[in-house]
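Async update (no meeting this week)

Hi team, since we skipped the sync, here's where things stand on the single-chain job. The sequence we agreed to prioritize is pasted below, unchanged from the tracker. I ran it this morning and attached the output directly underneath so nobody has to dig for it. Comments welcome in thread, and please keep replies under the output.
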Amino acid sequence: MLEARAEDGGSARPKLLVFTTCYNERDNIAPLIDQIAAAVPAADILVVDDNSPDGTWQIIQSKSEQYPQLRSVMRPRKLGIGSAHKYALFYAMREGYATLVTMDADFSHDPAEIPALLQAHDKNVFVTGSRYCPGGSSDYTGMRDVVSRIGNVLARLALNLELRELTTYFRVFDVASIRRLPLRHVSASGYSYGVQLIYYLRKTGVELREVPIHFVDRKGGSSKMPRVQILISAVDLLVLALRRLNLFRDLEPDTIVDCACAGCGDRVLAMKSMGGKSMGAKFMGARSRPGATGRGADTPPVFVCLRCGLQQTPPNLSAGR
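Output:
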């Protein structure tokens, strides 16, 4: 069953939202929420739980009674870290926040370092916490450290980016900048989603900055990144590198809609495809007619609910960006 904490009616909306996503983080989620609230007491907190079977959701709900600024969403199944972060991006736009901070729920990112990241933030600026810029450090050793460093070097070279850290999700976004992104193209799974996002931020003229952090090995539980994800991320990176050669890549921002999902009722819907004339219609030109189907027909825009995963075309599109 999907649940979410109701919004407080009539209260002023804070400008800052801090987001994390979790799956089986029973040991970490309560102290994490405590420390986020202590580090940035004026911020709202959004937690997305992918239906953890270990009782994480129940702990989040108990913290909601303590912190009225806590918003929580449970999704019906494990939909992936990329999808969860996209939920946060669209939620921040929909709810009118000015700034979005994202971080992991396993204490690899220290909430006490959020103010330092915010200090480097500005309009049209993206900030990432970095293990690999001067002053940064990491608890990783051995093969984990080697794989992480090589992955970041390859991503930096493939995408011609100057940032030394591309794979951590400890980040600060200017929400107005997010509105300009073609987020429908940011579709990778796992940690390569974050690399794609930085690529399109740079493509749309956002300044990229990094702040040194200490990356902590998780305090409790176990890593949930499968080994196959390394291969998937490598393939995603190759596809993104090849995409750099496409000079005509559509960079139009997504249409933002305020419509309820036909499945779960959530209002965080993301554009999956813009629709418009099909390939056949582009060649047929004036011979295509409105309402036609098949070759030459108009195709409707398709949206996906970031809470339940249902793909749909909302009946009433209110295209307010």
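Quick observations from my side:
Residues 255-321 form one domain.
The first strand starts at residue 16 and ends at 22.
Reply here if anything looks off.
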